[in-house]
Predict the structure.
Amino acid sequence: MTTAPNSALFDALAQRRALKVISGLQNFHLPSVLKITRAAQEGRATWVDIAASPELVQQVRAQVELPICVSAVDPQQLAAAVHAGATAAEIGNYDSFYDSGRVFSPEEVLELTRQTRALLPRTLLSVTVPHTLPLDQQAELAEKLEDLGADLIQTEGGTSAEPLHGGSLGLIEKAAPTLAAAYEISRVVSIPVICASGLSTVTVPMAIGAGASGVGVGKAINQLQDEVAMVAQVRALMEALAGIRIPMFV
């Protein structure tokens, strides 16, 4: 795995209890991003994932001590944000593109990875495998990404799920595609897998059971309007991962 400045992140991955809080690849609204990332820190998340903007990185870094991952599908944009102080780069979080009909082929993901690794040879690099591919092709792509130097593989799938039920059953149905991807991919790569998209407190333990080393959660947190509620949600997710009660106030 590539050298990175925060050992706590690697410890969490090794213990398979890492939580990444995602503010959104296309969320450049500073007050929103700051609220989400502050809540992530207060809730004891492992790291945060924000849009690849040097300005956002600098503003978040001024208020939040957690490792910062930046997400984009543009290698130059990723490099600029890393040079501004981000800890890690993520090719992906494709969900926001699907409504417009934008999809990512294996060849495009591989080329983006080659370009990004060339620009950032020592930066922790995560790559999302598109859920639009059949599971066997997702696993095959993940193997190739590992060979190209990816440090983490992220799964997705929440946008494709259409739950038929409410309550816990509906939450499990929502997470099924990304859980299945985590299961298949974790069996063919030796690098950590981050299970993301459509997860909740009900399903994050299932992600770990499926082979993931950590989870990425966005909407379940950032759709909340109140920062206190965001903190409570982050802590609930951490409790679900750890299987222990985290005190609300320390």
